[in-house]
Amino acid sequence: MKIGILTSGGDCPGLNAVIRGAVLNGVISHEAEFVGFRNGWRGVVEGEFSPLHRHDVRGLSKQGGTILGSSRTNPFEGEGGGPENIQRMLDENGIDAIIAIGGEGTLTAARRLTDAGLKIVGVPKTIDNDLAATDYSFGFDTAVEIATEAIDRLRTTAESHGRCMVVEVMGRHVGWIALHSGMAGGAHAILIPEQPTNIEQICEWVESVRDRGRAPLVVVAEGFHLDDMEEAHSHKGLDAFNRPRLGGIAERLAPMIEARTGIESRDTVLGHIQRGGAPSAYDRVLATRLGMAAIDAVYDGAWGSMVTLRGTDIRTVSIAEAVGRLNTVPQSRYDEAKILFG
Ligand code: F6P
Description:
By secondary structure, this protein is an alpha/beta fold. It has helices at 15-30, 41-45, 83-92, 104-115, 140-161, 176-185, 199-211, 229-234, 249-261, 281-299, 319-322, 331-338; strands at 2-7, 33-37, 49-51, 97-102, 120-124, 164-169, 189-191, 217-221, 265-269, 305-310, 313-318.
């Protein structure tokens, strides 16, 4: 069989480990051949790909980013887009199946293409851990590790100056990175999109930390908003490129905290640092297992399925189960962390 692999959407530590796991399992167990599509669905729509041999994936599991490149191209748009054009391109080049590694957008497109008859298997990818139907996704552990290290570093400078630090981590729709890095780093408040909070409550937590002679540390997910409606809307809107404005919440919170509590406050935005560099050992193993399992799903003809982590097992579910709903932080996990606030 000749299998095409693509990585699509925002990159994520572990993408290369998935590619390596898939190619090695495919070559060793099935004598499969591989091609890598350039820049996600764009490579599929434009027919841009190159052979992917065993030697191309050597030593790849520790490498950040993706050797195939990525984009946010929609495979239903553009000249070569749509199921008929894509199937024609695959037939002309003898490509039997596609492994699509991506998040919500990528998998939704994969599902629609499978419904139209294309042979696709999905692999979930998101550092935010917001995809349903998988307990964890690779990249998340690495992001939490990076954010925790940053929090540890911010704590020592905060303590030296008796300042309040507000750290913004990624998490567009869900607060998993904030919850885990905040718990690991001993944050005094963790603010997540699932739990709008008012500024008075945040300042109460901050002041109680100061009253114990400590420097308050607040971890906030980029998608968090205050439950005060005016503030909730004031940071929304579109940026200069007409994209929904994200982040900037730490920059707004720090002066609000300082004005209300009198505690000198600083903000830090970790941004794409959380997505760069080498994956953690956990993510390398998870990504490798998912890549290997994707090959098994291809040889089982499980089109429209996605490989997933359930407990410690790798399973196969329908992509339909994974898209259209978010893996949000449950109330119980937030309540548990909240005991440690203030
Ligand atoms: O979805 C993953 C994510 O890292 C979000 O946490 C973040 O909001 C977004 O991607 C950033 O996307 P981009 O790299 O396109 O700016």
